[in-house]
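Reminder to self: tokens first, then the designed residues, so the page reads top to bottom the way the pipeline ran.
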């Protein structure tokens, strides 16, 4: 269609939209015109909100346009991002329901046209309602209208109209194309001077398109009389200041709602069942409850038996319960702030004295007359089963229950290995390939929080938050309270705003160092978002969007979200993951039952400062970073020979982010019996070279060692007695002696034990590859029949990733670890140069410290002598560690005083 000259861009788009709807223009032409007229940046920002209005009435057209948009704008995404997008971006209609019933119980609303409903507010429309399309543009659902042969959408757009040159110019200034930053609309909006202008344009776009749609639909005799149309607006004053930029960028997508459908009779209330989605931002269940049109009754039911599941999961340990209490308190305040209220319930008991969420919900339904229950789906197999029971029981009572997907980026029950196979299963790359190959329903765009929730005229009875007993502290005999959580309380902000600030802080700072330095324990280089993600105070979708829009993108960080989803996928495949080793032979491993060692490890009193610092940080704050978790796990397993389940359970009890799926997967992998194998073992001393090279982490958490020098603080047993004396350290008293000293021997023993069980249970070792074999769960068997598996007695066995060190050891089980060419200690995390430095320091540190001692003594004597003789003090020479000039690796810095070369 020719574009008339002289018109403003929006009139042109409006005109084009009319042409499109009456069939005189096709989807590609419309998209091309948008790019040509609005330019690259504005099209990227406004196109999806613009076509959102077509999502229901013209669903197929909407799908086609979304596909075109995605293909065009995903052209130059980097690989990592593309994979992450495979986990997320696309949306199918009704994505949020496991129950497929419509979300509009009100017949009046159901009866109206989709266009009208859209004007009221339909959050599912704010998600991209395209069919499943992979980031590379392939579609698993009806494909979009074909392109003219040989032409890409990018090319089509480039020939779209008379403003081509200008549009192309805008392209070249787009942040993504020029610098690799900020591919999303958000980043464009972040750019100060243009921001206001863009916002104004956007409101014009919305109004214009609404007007145009209204005009067009009036032609087909549709009336808006049944519905109170409330302007979709974002109340800037409601936004916490710190997140302003990011929040603003989203406003085209997650419009806030202040209105409900007008209805002749009062609609029944909706129960909004909060579980692990304790937030108002980007919560599809919250928005879904608004859609139902009735008063909303937010409710939280505490039923610990259901959380625990069938095995020993310690799903809600002490630290987690404490966090939950605080998070609920914050959510409750947030709800009060928007005129609502959170009802706390403890389950009623049935005739056998067993309480359940179902009973609690049933009595709430009876009390309130609610006909709809909305909740965010949970994926632990036992919780899913519980939910299925709730859904079917309430449905029998004629109550509609909708379980909305939002906890992970991908619903783990929709991930399949089709087209990828099982090779490499357990690794995050394999998992991401599965998601990429089978995109399935995804997440769409984040939703803003509601400004208000309609209240019932009478609130149901509930108990107090304290009544749930989540944060009850033990009492001493004298009646005083033991406040074990005091430090946790002072270390975190438990609110949703706390989560947002944490994210903001990370994206402004830590993310710049994340790629290379996320292992540092002495610097805040990771996001610290895990507890917020665990309790759903921050949605993974929100996090992904903000991360993608940040100035500095870290593919490694984005991959972490895939790790999270991988853990949930594994738990759905292997419900025994938290208590049963996946590799059968390893169940027979010889484990130690030395309780003293376990106690020392738990209390941070092993005598290894790095391990102790981490375990004390865990106890005091409920958290430690990933690298430190690996250090302490390696120590427990490879050096203390204690079973991984002990570590898992302690973590579950003490971590504020304790997450059954992630914790179990990581401990299984660390315990050598998961789907994946760590290909390294962290050395309790040498690992410090990466994470705490100057000892400041140890100084913080093991303050009794604070005065020791950098190079000896990780091994106080190597300090000369005089140094310990001066530092006030008495090993065995002020700081514990090492619980084990023969580290090398213990490592060898651990390796030999593995070789032993692999020999004993040879049927679980693949003779060709030497890999361990794992029995496959039925779901994977049915997906992968015929693919590279060995069948033994009805069990399907699959070769899984196996540490090279184990394969080699199996040839000579009695050999010691040092002679194994694949010795995993320190490998995988370090450079050869660093290994050499460590070896050098291990050899020389004792000698060096003795020499230093001597030199210092001589210096002191000389100074005393000079003072006595009244001579001036000699000029101080600055003495610092020296860096090898050509060193690429900062660990080549030799600590202490280094002699300058003598010519
Ligand atoms: C033995 C062991 C046990 C662990 N137990 C838990 C646990 O109970 N709960 C938990 O959330 N994480 C666990 N992790 C994973 C990881 O250590 C934490 O997620 C991370 O340290 C949290 O800090 P962060 O938010 O700063 O992480 P970041 O590095 O900033 O990562 C961002 C988010 O990605 C996710 N993530 C990061 N690493 C992983 C991973 N390896 N697997 C799955 N998801 C990941 C988390 O949700 C995290 O918040 C464990 C790791 C190990 C080695």
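Designed residues (903 positions):
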């Amino acid at each position: 269609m020719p574009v008339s000259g002289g018109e403003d861009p929006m009139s042109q788009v409006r005109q084009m939209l009319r042409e499109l709807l009456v069939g005189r223009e096709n989807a590609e032409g419309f998209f091309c015109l948008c790019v040509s007229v609005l330019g690259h940046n504005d099209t990227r920002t406004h196109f999806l909100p613009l076509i959102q209005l077509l999502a229901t009435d013209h669903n197929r057209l909407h799908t086609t346009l979304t596909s075109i948009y995605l293909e065009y704008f995903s052209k130059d995404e980097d690989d990592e991002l593309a994979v992450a997008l495979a986990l997320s971006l696309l949306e199918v209609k009704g994505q949020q329901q496991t129950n497929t019933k419509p979300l509009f119980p009100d017949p009046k609303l159901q009866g109206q046209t989709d266009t009208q409903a859209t004007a009221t507010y339909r959050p599912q429309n704010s998600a991209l309602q395209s069919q499943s399309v992979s980031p590379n543009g392939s579609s698993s659902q009806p494909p979009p209208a074909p392109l003219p042969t040989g032409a890409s959408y990018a090319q089509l757009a480039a020939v779209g109209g008379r403003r081509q040159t200008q549009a192309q110019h805008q392209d070249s200034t787009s942040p993504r194309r020029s610098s690799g930053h900020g591919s999303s609309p958000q980043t464009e909006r972040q750019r100060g001077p243009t921001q206001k202008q863009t916002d104004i344009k956007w409101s014009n776009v919305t109004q214009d398109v609404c007007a145009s749609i209204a005009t067009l639909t009036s032609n087909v005799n549709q009336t808006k009389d049944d519905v109170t149309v409330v302007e979709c607006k974002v109340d800037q004053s409601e936004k916490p200041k710190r997140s302003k930029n990011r929040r603003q960028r989203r406003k085209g997508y997650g419009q806030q709602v202040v209105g409900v459908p007008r209805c002749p009779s009062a609609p029944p209330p909706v129960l909004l069942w909060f579980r692990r989605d304790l937030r108002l931002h980007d919560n599809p269940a919250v928005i879904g409850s608004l859609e139902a049109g009735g008063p909303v009754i937010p409710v939280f039911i505490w039923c610990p038996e259901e959380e625990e599941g069938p095995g020993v999961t310690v799903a809600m340990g002490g630290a987690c319960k404490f966090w939950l209490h605080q998070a609920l308190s914050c959510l409750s305040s947030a709800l009060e702030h928007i005129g609502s209220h959170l009802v706390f319930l403890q389950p009623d008991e049935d005739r056998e004295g067993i309480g359940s969420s179902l009973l609690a919900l049933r009595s709430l339904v009876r009390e309130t007359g609610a006909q709809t229950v909305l909740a965010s789906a949970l994926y632990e197999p036992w919780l899913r089963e519980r939910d299925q029971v709730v859904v079917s029981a309430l449905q029998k009572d004629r109550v509609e229950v909708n379980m909305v997907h939002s906890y992970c980026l991908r619903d783990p029950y929709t991930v399949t290995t089709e087209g990828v196979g099982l090779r490499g299963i357990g690794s995050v790359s394999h998992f991401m390939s599965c998601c990429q190959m089978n995109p399935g329903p995804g997440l769409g765009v984040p939703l803003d929080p509601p400004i208000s929730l309609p209240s019932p005229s009478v609130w149901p009875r509930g108990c107090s938050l304290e009544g749930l007993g989540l944060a009850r502290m033990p009492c001493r005999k004298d009646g005083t309270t033991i406040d074990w959580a005091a430090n946790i309380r002072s270390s975190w902000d438990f609110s949703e705003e706390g989560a947002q600030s944490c994210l903001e802080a990370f994206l402004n700072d830590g993310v710049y160092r994340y790629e290379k330095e996320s292992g540092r324990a002495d610097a805040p280089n990771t996001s610290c978002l895990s507890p917020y993600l665990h309790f759903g105070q921050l949605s993974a979708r929100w996090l992904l969007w903000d991360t993608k829009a940040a100035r500095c993108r870290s593919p490694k960080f984005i991959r972490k979200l895939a790790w999270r989803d991988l853990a949930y996928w594994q738990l759905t495949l292997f419900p025994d993951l938290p208590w049963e080793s996946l590799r059968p032979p390893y169940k027979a491993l010889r484990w130690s039952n030395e309780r003293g060692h376990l106690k020392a490890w738990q209390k941070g009193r092993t005598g290894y400062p790095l391990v102790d610092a981490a375990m004390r940080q865990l106890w005091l704050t409920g958290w430690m970073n990933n690298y430190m978790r690996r250090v302490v796990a390696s120590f427990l397993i490879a050096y203390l020979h204690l079973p991984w389940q002990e570590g898992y359970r302690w973590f579950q009890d003490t971590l504020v982010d304790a997450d059954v799926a992630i914790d179990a997967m990581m401990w299984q992998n660390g315990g050598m019996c998961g789907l994946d194998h760590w290909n390294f073992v962290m050395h309790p001393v040498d690992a410090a070279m990466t994470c705490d090279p100057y000892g400041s982490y140890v100084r913080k958490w093991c303050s009794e060692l604070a005065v020791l020098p950098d190079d000896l603080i990780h091994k106080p047993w190597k300090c000369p007695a005089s140094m310990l004396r001066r530092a006030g350290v008495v090993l065995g008293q002020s700081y514990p002696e090492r619980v084990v000293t023969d580290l090398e021997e213990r490592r060898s023993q651990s390796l030999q034990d593995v070789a032993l069980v692999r020999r004993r249970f040879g049927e679980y070792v693949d003779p060709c590859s030497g890999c361990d074999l794992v029995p496959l769960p039925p779901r994977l068997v049915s997906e992968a029949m015929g693919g590279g598996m060995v069948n033994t007695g009805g069990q399907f066995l699959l070769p899984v990733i196996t540490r090279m060190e184990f394969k080699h050891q199996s040839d000579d089980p009695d050999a010691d670890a040092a002679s194994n060419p694949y010795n995993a200690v320190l490998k995988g995390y370090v450079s050869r140069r660093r290994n050499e430095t460590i070896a050098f320091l291990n050899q020389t540190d004792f000698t060096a410290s003795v020499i230093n001692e001597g030199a210092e003594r001589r210096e002191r004597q000389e100074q005393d002598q000079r003072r006595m003789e009244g001579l001036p003090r000699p000029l101080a020479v600055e003495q610092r560690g020296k860096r090898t000039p050509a060193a690429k690796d900062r660990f080549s810095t030799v600590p202490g005083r280094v002699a300058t070369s003598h010519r």
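DSSP finds 36 helices and eight strands in the chain.
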